[in-house]
Amino acid sequence: MVRENTIEITDKIIWFSILGFAFFSPWSIAGAQAFLILGLAVWLVKILISGKWKFIHTPLNIPILLYLTTQIISVIFSPFKVHSLLALKEEWLLLLFFLLVNNVREEGKIKKLVTILIMVSCIVGLYAVWQHYSGMDLYRHKLLEPKGGVFISLGLFDHHLTFGGCYMLVFLLAAVIALSYQREGIRRILDIISPVILGLSLIFSYARSAWLGAVAGMLTLGFLQGKKFALLFTLGVVVLCLAVFVIEPTSWDRIKEISLSKEKAESTRIRLWQTSLNMIKDKPIWGIGLGNFGQFFNQYKVEGGYDNYSHPHNDFLNVAVNSGLLGLIAYLYLWAVFIYTTLKAVLKNRRIGLIYTVQISGVVTIVAFLFASLFQCYYTDAEVNMLVMFLLGITTVANLKLAEDKI
Predict the structure, then answer these.
(1) For 151-201, what is the HEC assignment?
(2) Within 13 Å of residue 208, how many CA atoms lie on the same side as its CB?
């Protein structure tokens, strides 16, 4: 009896910690990770008490294990083993996926998590819109970077790319809900308003990689919903973008800044990609070791100016550089399995409801994330990574829930 009561208490704490993560992830990495650690710790206690060490089987268990195996082997072959081992610890955020899959089963809980995430993001999004015009970062007591007569929004994060990457994902989640999950009354109004607020936040982040990711996500949504929907949706997005660019010409100016001249940041990215390819050609199997890009940069760099060289500004090249082509194959396999299994479930079970909506949003947001990752290292950005794992987790829960309902 005591054992059952203790397990029940751990379940409540774990659920509380997951709710806390959803609340903090759009604005505080410290708060989100604190609740994540609490949830993982209590989950471990529950496992020890119950004696049940077996994880719930999902199609992603083996791909994640294979990916982690390539990262560990890369550490073993790294010339700077301690440094690479410290870099490996960043993969701990994958545990969020397992925490969600093994502790969230009910559809109602998925709904609460999504609602909290979007509501909190909208509140921060309104603050970001205000930042765009006021230029004030109240949290850090400083003036934001100016862009014409307005400013680049950060929300409550410390970098506009992090903010843009996170709000790209939440914007697309809110957009899918607004278009696919029909509710009534005040909830319907909020569903419509949410993507508008989050979309403006994304635009005002001036994160062009996140803009491109959002476009890829919206095109994916249009494809999944049919040709007629795709056409109308695309026209709507074009009209909205034109309206934004007319009202806020600095957004268009941000696009026109793209240049391949040697002094521009875009050319830095190209040289970083070329430098990364040099590293991959020389160390194609296991790579140069996790976290060693800066250590080997001077040895492989392409001549020219660089405004930074902390990473390749491309997640796929970053994985290939760090853990070789085998690591890249494992990384691609993980995302391919997720998209394939989720699309398979969606196409076989076209329904209207929360589960279907979450599945669609999972595919849309991950496609957006992967496309944006061609131009920026979002996987290694902890705030973005946590939201990706959250979306990966709740989508997999939705897939499992649908499979259970069919039995």
Answers:
(1) ECCCCCCCCHHHHHHHHHHHHHHHHHHHHHCCCCCHHHHHHHHHHHHHHHH
(2) 13
Contacts of residue 189, Cβ cutoff 8 Å, sequence gap at least 6: none
Residue matched to tokens 């209207």: 352
The least confident of 47-51, 128-132, 230-234, 387-391 is: 230-234
CB 121, CB 170: distance < 8 Å: yes
Mean pLDDT of the chain: 89
Read off the tokens for 151. 């400013």
Tokens of 310: 């902390």
The separation between CA 379 and the C-alpha centre of its own chain, rounded to angstroms, equals 7
CA gap 394, 355 in Å, rounded = 10
Where do the domains of the chain lie?
1-54, 55-406
The per-residue DSSP string of 89-133 comes to GGGGGGHHHHHHHHH---HHHHHHHHHHHHHHHHHHHHHHHHHHH
Q: How many Cβ atoms sit within 10 Å of the Cβ of residue 155?
A: 25
Q: Is the dihedral angle over the CA atoms 184, 186, 188, 191 positive or is it negative?
A: negative
- Global model pTM greater than 0.85: yes
Return the structure tokens found at 35: 């609740």
What is the DSSP annotation of 4-63?
A: HHHHHHHHHHHHHHHHHHHHHTTT-HHHHHHHHHHHHHHHHHHHHHH---PPPP-TTHHH
Mean pLDDT of 238-260: 62
- Determine the distance from the C-alpha atom of residue 272 to the mean position of all C-alpha atoms in its chain, rounded to a whole number: 23
The 3-state DSSP class for residue 142 equals strand
Neighbours of 186 (CB within 10 A): 8
3 state SS of 230: helix
Q: Where does residue 216 rank: exposed (0-12), middle (13-18), buried (19+ CB within 10 A)? A: buried
pLDDT in tens, 138-161: 988 899 999 888 999 999 999 999
Q: How many CB atoms lie within 10 A of CB 143?
A: 11
